[in-house]
Design brief:
With about 220 residues, the protein is mainly α. The protein contains ten helices and two strands, in the order αααααββααααα.
Length: about 220
């Protein structure tokens, strides 16, 4: 394929690496070193995670968990526009503010539906196994370009806002990845089959209320 999902992983890693650098150099953050290390380890997982031994990646995840568990992920101070500037910008842009947000689903649908089978010779344009995710990434980049064009701002400001949102979410940003890994561990360990066996062998599921309670 020409556009692989791996490119999006690298892009996410670069953004996280920049976030880690900006955080580590932010003297207003009392936990800047541990916070920078946290996001830096997360960036490494995206950038070169597939090339590292699984043990090293696991150690990195444990270090991140320790940092988050002991409250090492902090929040710095961010420069925001004053209320007057915000009102002037909103008055100038009005409903145009929705264009970047609407561009993301539009580009995603176009890519996932119309471009997923496009080939150049024997090579797919989009990663056939992840065409929707690749299209979502392309849509996000298009939205970024539109936002910069509409607001007359730069990608640097976009990175500042990205860092602000990342720090606002904190360690909770990792929950989707952590839950996905936990699901894979449970699947490989056969936890689902064991639970299903216990439910069917020792619980009378003929009663609908009991069946619903077990399911929940």
């Amino acid at each position: 394929m020409i556009i692989s999902i791996q490119y999006l992983y690298w892009l996410a890693g670069v953004i996280l690496a920049i976030t880690a650098f900006m955080t580590a150099t932010d003297r207003s953050n009392p936990k800047r070193w541990t916070t920078g290390l946290f996001w830096g380890l997360f960036a490494i997982a995206f950038l070169i995670g597939e090339k590292l031994p699984p043990v090293w990646v696991g150690v990195g995840v444990i270090v991140m968990a320790v940092i988050a568990g002991f409250g090492g992920v902090g929040f710095g101070q961010h420069e925001n526009l004053n209320d007057r500037a915000r009102r002037e910008s909103a008055g100038r842009l009005k409903n145009k503010l929705f264009i970047p947000a609407l561009a993301i689903p539009l580009v995603t649908v176009i890519g996932a539906v119309l471009l997923k089978n496009i080939k150049f010779g024997d090579v797919f344009l989009l990663d056939p196994a992840n065409s929707t995710f690749v299209s979502l990434g392309i849509g996000s980049l298009v939205a970024l370009a539109l936002a910069c064009w509409l607001t007359r701002d730069t990608p640097v400001q976009a990175m500042r806002e990205s860092r602000r949102l990342t720090e606002a979410l904190g360690w909770a940003l990792l929950l989707p990845q952590m839950l996905a890994m936990l699901g894979l561990v449970f699947n490989d360990a056969g936890v689902g089959k064991a639970v299903a066996h216990l439910a069917t062998a020792y619980i009378n599921l003929d009663f609908r209320l009991v069946a619903v309670m077990v399911y929940v």
